[in-house]
Design a protein that fits this description.
Radius of gyration: 15 Å
Number of strands: 5
Largest sheet: 5 strands, parallel
Structural class: alpha/beta
Strand order of the largest sheet: 1-2-3-4-5
Distance between the termini: 33 Å
Helix content: 25-40%
Order of helices and strands: HEHEHEEHE
């Protein structure tokens, strides 16, 4: 039996390739569940994606905090995931020219607690309006 911490990154460099393959095998066999995988390691995701058995119940997302992380969206698009989503939290800066082609839904949020960095409402509104124009579900946390 394999247990994966729901708050870990499956594509972290210390997670062995064979472990990732076993997790995908289990997700494929458990077709009655929806699995939402989120990673900041989009390079490894892109590298492994062609050899992974993508089923419709495996949803893939990448974290995009600001413009310098927007390259992760292209890596996500390269996957064969049935549902592709962006987690833009914490949103730390504007993302001008955000291309939502091939993206199924977007989550945006800020930080809370002591030392949290500010979230500019204009950044959120810009993303929300792009989602509305593209008919993509938008979730704000």
């Amino acid at each position: 039996m394999i247990f994966v911490n729901s708050m870990s990154d499956l594509f972290h460099e210390k997670v062995p390739d064979d472990f990732i393959a076993r997790v995908f095998d289990i997700m494929n066999r458990a077709s009655w569940h929806r699995f939402q995988i989120l990673t900041k390691r989009s390079g490894r995701l892109s590298q492994m994606s062609p050899i992974l058995p993508w089923a419709d119940n495996i949803w893939m997302g990448v974290t995009v905090e600001d413009q310098k992380c927007a390259f992760r969206i292209d890596h996500l698009r390269e996957t064969s995931a049935a549902i592709k989503f962006l987690s833009m939290e914490p949103l730390l800066g504007p993302i001008p020219g955000l291309d939502l082609t091939g993206i199924d839904w977007v989550i945006v949020g800020g930080e809370s607690g002591p030392g949290s960095r500010p979230l500019n409402a204009e950044w959120v509104i810009e993303i929300k309006e792009k989602c509305e124009r593209a008919n993509i579900p938008f979730f704000f946390k």
